[in-house]
Structure formats: C-alpha cells, structure tokens
Amino acid sequence: MNASEVRPAALGESEPKAPGPVADRGALPRLMPLLTVANAAMFMVYMGVGVVLLPVQVELVDPADKVANLGLVSGVAAIFATLFNPLAGLLSDRSGRRNPWILCGGLAALGALALLGAARTVLLVTIGWCLVQAMMNVYQAALTAVVPDRVPAERRGLASAMVGIGTPIGSAVGISTAALFVPGDIAPGYLVLGAAVAGAAVLFTAAMRERRRPKAEPVPLGRQPAAFADTLKSADFRWVFIGRFLMMLGFFSVSLFQMYILQDHIELPEGLDATGAVAFIAPVDAGVTLLATVLGGLLSDRTGRRKPLVGLSCALCGVAMLVPVVKPDWTGMLIFTVVVGLAFGCYMAVDTALVTLVLPSADDAARDMGVLNIANAGPQILAPFLAALLVGAIGYDGLYLTAALLTLLGAAAVTPVKSVR
C-alpha cells in the first residue's frame, strides 16, 4: 500500500481503523508492566554488551587498535541491524502475529550471544555481533509494534512511558551485570544477558496471548524496497524519523563510547577505574531517566502536546553534551549523567508516543515501526564507528561538540510535524 494514499493514523489523535489496533482494554493493566520487562531485557543486551562487554572484548583482542577495531565491528554490524529490523517488521505484519517473532528473536539472541562470548579474533567478534544484532532486531521489530497494535491512542503516552521505563532499568542492570565480569572471563556475562532477553521473550508471549490480525495482502518481493520507501513519503513520519535518527546518533556516539572516554579522557578520583565508574554511573542515570520517563509520558497525555516536549528534551541533551568539554573530570561526568538522563528519559517516553501517532498505515504498523527503528537501532551501532573517526581526527572534545550539534538538529526536526501538536 502506498503511504501517500493513506490517511495518517495520527490525524485527530483517534484510533486507526481496522485492522489495528487490536486492543483488548481489559488486558492493558497486564500489558503495561510486561512492556517494561520486555524492553528492559532488550536494553540489558544493547547497553551491557555495547557499553561494557564488547569494548572490553575488543581491547583484549588488540589493545593498540581498540578504537579503530570497535568502530569497524560496530559499523559492519550496523548493516545487519538496519536490514533485519524493517524486514522482521514486514514479516510479522504479513503473518498477522507478533508473539512468534518476539519469542524466536529472544531465544535466538541467547545463542548468538553465546557465540559472541567465545570469539577471540576481531573477525569472529564482528560475525558474532552481527548475529546478535540480527536476532535482537527481530525481537525488537515485533515488540515495538505491540503498542500501535494493542493500545488505544489516548493511552499511548502511558504505554510509551512504560516502554521508556525499560530503557534506564535495562541499561543500569545490563551495565552493572556486565561490569561484574570485568576483569576476568567475560563469556558468562554474555550468557547471563542472553538468558535475560530469552526469559523476557518467553514471559511476554506466555502472559500476553494475542488475537491474530487480519493478514495483509503480501507485497511482491520486487516491490518490497519500494514499500519501505513509501513509508517515508509521509511527511510527518519522515520528520519524526529524521529527528529520532539525529537524537540517537548524538546520544549513542557518546554513551556507547563511555568506557574509552572514562579510560582516556576523564580525570577520575584516586582508586576509581573506568569499569567502576561505569558501574557507579549506571544506577544514577537509571534513577533520573526513570523519573523523567514517567513524568514526560504522563504530562504528554495530560496536555495532549508531544512536539514541545520532544524538542525541549533534544535541546537539553545537546546542552548537556557541553559539560564534559568545559569540565572533563568526575564531577563534570556526574552533572552530565544527571542532565542527559532527565533529557533522554523524557524524550523516549514522549517521542515514542509521537511516533505511534504519525504511522502512515495501520495495516503495516510493524513494517513502519521497523523503518522507524532504523533511526533507533542504527545509530546505536553506527555511533562507535562515527566516534572512532571523530576521536582520531579531533579528539574527545570534538566528539562531544559533534554530538551536541546532532541532538540540537534533532530538536529542530520535529518542528514541521503538522498532524500532532
């Protein structure tokens, strides 16, 4: 279906017409906490591996070229993340089901993480991380479509907040858990994180039985690239996509490089190493992000205004990026962590609600969310590659300044959105 021919689901912020969302209002109280658990498990993997285990593993393989190698591993894996997310979304749309894709993606991710933990060369680490990204994006694509599928429009701010709560919880638990295995044998750390996402997939699919959606008419294989392109013909969706991509790229360029920043750039107190600093920062970040996520989601539902909160969050994140440039010490990092946590928590809650309200087609929610998730997952993998280039060329201060510019541009990108306030 051509997106330019479909009335956006967000107009009037009313629920899209059949076939979605397939909402069982009686199941919403049970769905909300499960969204948090499932998304927390996802971020345990993304952040526990991306922030701690993968950088440590790359450094163990080749300490002298750790920055370049991490960028290479992450850049190659970006191809798999970018490909599998919308593809998995398309397949789940066509099957009329989400649960099988969530379950299979979570279980397969456990196997892929076990392989990654056993890798001892840069090539094998790259292959392993590509497999993990592929399986995690199958899981993520179907999970992300649950909100537009099963939650009425007037409750999506709350649902998005519950999804967003999973980000700080999963990040903090994942980073803290991964840090327990450093220094030492990091392979069991991969297994623990894999078991978390596999367990979450089993719990979600067992507790939330779904009603099969009407199967959409299959798009011929030759038309599928054009179908993805059609999604971006919706102007509002396109601007939200651009804003999300810029914000995530700026944010993760710094956060996924945090281990090396703390090792090589920040002046830490006596007796505190980079691994200990990461483990200390994680719960602080989680607390403020959690608070901002809940308040942001509730406020956006109460006021019915999404754009101002999204723009303000991006702008605040951009300003926070300047703190470590002015004050590259432990105090500066703590200030940076608190301010960015507040900004990112509010952003994730409100922007997720905004996204569900500008989907071009109710028939292809997972495909469209999969395309949008390119702007979410892609930067998380591309960011270390960009960071490696920037650090090599202009240093860590240049990395922070570039990240600030990207997030500020992300704030400006939501301004042209017309169908949602």
Q: Gist?
A:
The chain is mostly helical and 421 residues long. Helices cover 75% and strands 0% of the residues. The relative contact order is 0.18.
From the structure above, extract its key features.
0% strand; mainly alpha; 75% helix; 421 residues; Growth Hormone, Chain: A
Tell me what you see in this structure.
- The structure is a single chain.
- With 421 residues, the chain is mainly alpha-helical.
- The protein has a single domain (24-413), classed as MFS general substrate transporter like domains (Growth Hormone, Chain: A), CATH 1.20.1250.
- Helices cover 75% and strands 0% of the residues.
- It contains 15 helices and no strands.
- The protein has helices at residues 28-61, 66-95, 99-117, 122-144, 146-150, 156-179, 187-207, 224-231, 235-255, 258-264, 274-303, 307-320, 323-326, 330-356, 365-413.
- The longest helix is centred in the last third of the chain and has 49 residues, at 365-413.
- The two termini are 27 Å apart.
- Residues 1-23 have low confidence and may be disordered.
